[in-house]
Amino acid sequence: MSHTDLRLSIGVLVCEKLYLYFYNHSDNKNDCLEIPFEKDNELGIKFMELFNKNNFDVEKARDFIQSETKNKNDISNIKTEISEELVKNLLTEHFIKIYDKDVVESALKGFSFICSERKSMNDAGMLKNIIQNTGNSSYNKNETPPEVVLLIGDREVEPREFKDKLLQKKSAKRFWYYNNGQTEEDFWNAYSFKVDSNLLGNIHSTKYRNWKTSGLVKLVCKIPE
Questions:
Q1: What is the pLDDT of residues 76-122, one digit of tens each?
Q2: Residue 101: how many CA atoms within 13 Å on its side-chain side?
Q3: Strands 147-152 and 216-223
Q4: Coil, strand, or helix at residue 13?
Q5: What number of other Cβ atoms are within 10 A of residue 208's Cβ?
Q6: Which of 10, 57, 94, 218 is the most buried (most CB within 10 A)?
Q7: Structure confidence at residue 143 (pLDDT)
């Protein structure tokens, strides 16, 4: 028997996630909020506050479920609308306030726009789709060196912090992304890396330096937390 059968407005289901339901009997609308079991999850903390037996209030719980459900749907809609074409159109709108439209369109022809949601950094398959629709000619034409991303765990950091961590760990993983969709992974043995070593110089002295001919578009260096 479900909470709708019991004519209840709020229901809680616990399985692989925590599911909160609000059922509006007047218009038969059912809002569902998912809360994953994660340490320090903000929604989970709020749930514990609202559903404490000493503080529970039906209206506050209802407002929480409806508000967070709406936020989730709005975020999903925004992500759906983000595209390379949208970025290009927004840039065009910005520059035509200053320059002639034909000039702006001519300038933007030389650029490729990449819109890809940032993924969590898993090992073998990490960021598989972060580079899409990127032609070798566009990168060579614009003489744009590949981006270098430095990670400690799943957190992107500045070169100084990465260098300090590398001096401690003496190793890292490198993930090489190419414009033909291929990905390579290798191990960075930094045993000889010293305090006075140049981090970016060390990186650029690897096969990174052949990016114009290899089609390299991104390098991710990762050290576990």
A1: 888 888 888 888 888 888 888 898 888 888 888 877 776 666 555 44
A2: 3
A3: parallel
A4: strand
A5: 18
A6: 218
A7: 63
